[in-house]
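Retro notes - structure team

What went well: the batch runner handled both jobs without manual restarts.
What didn't: labels got mixed up in the shared folder, which is why I'm recording both outputs here explicitly, each with its sequence directly above its tokens.

Job 1
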Amino acid sequence: MAEQQVQPLHNEKHANTKIQNGINIEFMKTQHLVPVVAHEFARIANEFPMAFVKNNESGQFQAVALFGLEPGENLFIQDDKWTAAFAPMAMTRYPLGLVKHPEADQFGIVIDEASPLVSEETGNALFENGEETEYLKRRKEALVSFIEFSQVTEAFTKYLADKELLVAQTLTVEIKGEKKDINGIYLVDEKKLNSLSDEEFLDLRKRGYLAPIYSFLTSTHQVARLARLKAAKA
């Protein structure tokens, strides 16, 4: 796989650069988890199971969509194509990214020049006569939104963790008659959620957290879909 060549985006250097919409298939082939933001939970729940994973060093939790049942497995890429109807924002922002300047409270845009989606021949132009195109402006807005949504999701996840609403669980799936366990993930504890006081429940509602919680809970049913895909592949 080609190494990434991440460079700051510049209107002179990238005057003729074009980008095709798409995802980084080569990289995604081996990713069984991808970070997701609360704003897309409802759409993700229609396609993928979600879980929280814990960073053992920082103790922080992160919401993820599961694309496979074990590390290195992505069941939604077949014949070098993404087969799901939706791709999380963390994937669609590629090959662009935002980098925070160390000194100032500003972000700069970077581009992976080694990406197969980047060329001077095909795709959407980023600059015209040195000015940003409408396409680049839209992509930029999406990058900024992703950072904002990630911060909201971090606060949401921390709130669930602080209220002890996240519980370590093992998901068991059946593949061709054999049971398989998925460990190391955390789910929303439904029992605990239902035993919250009226006051705590109202607080969840006021914060706008109920919708993402219920989307998250619904998404767990998609584990069966992963099992079916894996059985079909096998």
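Job 2
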Amino acid sequence: MKQVEVETAPDPVDARLGARLAELRAERGWSLGELAERTGVSKSTLSRAERAEISPTASLLNRLCAVHGRTMSQLLSEVETEPPLLVRAAEQPVWEDRASGFVRRSVSPPHAGLRGELVEGRLAPGADIAYDRPPVPGLEQHIWVLEGALAMTAQDVEHRLDAGDCLRLRVWGPTRFRCAGPEPVRYALAVVLP
């Protein structure tokens, strides 16, 4: 029996995100090769992300945000329609990095002109995400653990946070977020541009 390959349409958010990434690259006049050199990501991966053939990982988006001078929330808000003042819980954009077990909810109504934003992060047991650089150097973060346990590493120091704990820091280099317990961890992340 002959197997038939079924093509599925790309996720609408991934399609809009891919188109925006291609626009940002074109605005700077960069080829895929130039962007690959700046991010350390292969040309084929960048091309597939722009064409929405793959759903970008958190690490990939972080690298792209760094070269484009945006936070992840800013980039994701750019693929939304006109930003509202109020976003109901059911309408808050959720993005999932299935490969790492990371789910990100943009809690704050998106607005490109504001310096602060609120994000909810969830990590499955065993999830471990490493970012090689901040999207914007000197980014201020307040990490408040709502449920579970989180191990957050910055400047080669690991901080263990349990439910109710809050860590404030400025991010200048690599960071790592790891679910530190047997249960999922849920945390609020307040991000403030320098």
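One thing worth noting from job 2: Helices lie at 12-27, 32-39, 43-50, 58-68, 72-77.
We'll revisit the folder naming next retro.
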